[in-house]
Amino acid sequence: MSRIKTCVSLYSLQDEYLNKRMTLEEIMHYVKDCGAEGVEVLPDQMLHGTPEPAQEELDKWNKYVADTGLVPACGDVFLNTNLYKNRTLTKKECVELLIKEIKLAHNMGLHLIRLVSMVPYWVQEPLLPYCQQYDVAIAVEVHAGMAFDVQATNDFIREMKRLNSPYIGLVIDTGIFCRRMPRVVRAYETSIGTSPEVFDYMDSLFAKGTDFHQVLLKTGYQYPEELKAAMKSEHDKISVPLLDGYENYPYEVLDDLMPYVKHIHLKTFEMTPEGPEYSMDYKGLLQYLHDHDYDGYVSTEYEGNRFTLAGHPMQEKQQVAMQQEYLKKCLKEIQG
Question: CA–CA separation, 313 vs 263, rounded Å?
Fold first, then answer.
């Protein structure tokens, strides 16, 4: 039986935090007021000294958790392999950094950390003893543009299945389940010079049940003639390569992976006044998760903030609240 729980990734409210309109404590209380059960945190952005913050920082975090009653559902980890100008990190250095992140997660009350997409598969086996010792699972993010046709993702999945541990899994980002091109992307990009005809072409692909990423795979990353004809401005040469990060997979792509799915990022570009997100069918996905007995969090991850039009206010708080309200409505219908 499914037990789908709601969560908010603090990625959704990072502009509020970075521009000091809200403190971490205020954000935590806001997430609770929106009705979420859990919280997903970005430690390296919001806890000074990560991955080895001072005890004072940990004490503040643990107080916020206690005061709000939010469950620490997931911590986002970014493996920066480019710390040095002349080389990338060695395998040993990568593993040592991630061991520090596992220990930090344990001290924060987290039992899951999301590894950013493209983290190499070979970190899994050396990290597994530490995951078991500190009761912290690791899960790589399957993200649009870096999903199931990418070698690094498939290598991680292959090794995950070989090790077959409850401490290793996947975070699924719903950018792979776009059913339409987000219109906030169109509005923003055309405002800075992208030709509207480019987005007419992208919309036509979604109408046919495919997407730009799939087209590029079939053409060997050569632009189709129809797209070339749509590219009118010099700016199109910059913007078009960014438009393959909105994929249109069927939910069934997860069928054999559901036992490994630890967490869901419910990507949000634009919650509409009518209720649903403009480009995604959350209700359909939640029904799929319910039918496959998913027991975990679905986490609001608002990404429309990066497409805020010049002169317009950020909508982070409003969008988080709208999605949480819509999710509760959907889950009530689906789960009772």
Answer: 30
Q: Residues in the chain with pLDDT < 70?
A: 1
Structural domains of the chain, with CATH = 3-177+249-335 (3.20.20.150), 185-243 (no CATH)
Residue 3 identity (one-letter amino acid): R
Which residue's structure tokens are 């129809």?
A: 226
Round the average pLDDT of the chain to a whole number and report it. Answer: 96
- pLDDT tens sequence across 100-143: 999 999 999 999 999 999 999 999 999 999 999 999 999 999 99
pLDDT at 25: 98
